[in-house]
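Sanity check

After download, print the first record. It should look like this:
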Amino acid sequence: MSQDTREFKSRPHRIYYYVYVLKSLKDSKLYTGWTSNLGWCLKEHKTGKTKSLRNRRPLKLVYFEKYKTKAEAFRRERYFKTPEGGVLKRKLIDGGVGSGRRPPQPGG
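Expected structure tokens:
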């Protein structure tokens, strides 16, 4: 085993959790969710494999945040679904509070 291989295997794999907001380009409504695999989740939504969004396609990722724990991501998603959190979510998406995170680029 080479030195490079040993170093790679000894590093723990970091899992992050994401809270994301999709916008339906059909009806302009927003959908908020959380996942540990943002790329896969977006693919599932965009290809119609999610019943709740199947008839609201096409969809666009308009905002996301990254968290170290599932509990943090879950709390943030729940907050975004409250009336107060919905106001903040809209401001973040519109760029009125700080700067919203940009969608990931393919292959990056």
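If your output differs, re-run the checksum step. Summary of this record's structure: Strands lie at 17-24, 30-35, 59-67.
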